[in-house]
Fold this protein.
Amino acid sequence: MTPYQILQLRTALGLSQVQFAQLFGVHFMTVSKWERGVLLPSPYQLALLDRFALTAAAKQEEAKERVKQLLVGAGVVAALLFLLSKA
């Protein structure tokens, strides 16, 4: 995982460096160093990062699908209201 991917993952999760660091039991400056490429996460931390990334991607897809379903539902309701107003 590249430094940029670590930064993207953290921001996608909506976490500060302090919050993200707490997930790994490290100091927030360690996260800053990961994101700048100054320090590399350990193999264990990389495995956790990969797992978080997979989970985040799955949740993002799930959220997109829910939004799509809500928009379709809203479209059906809008169409029904339009048809009822014309009746």
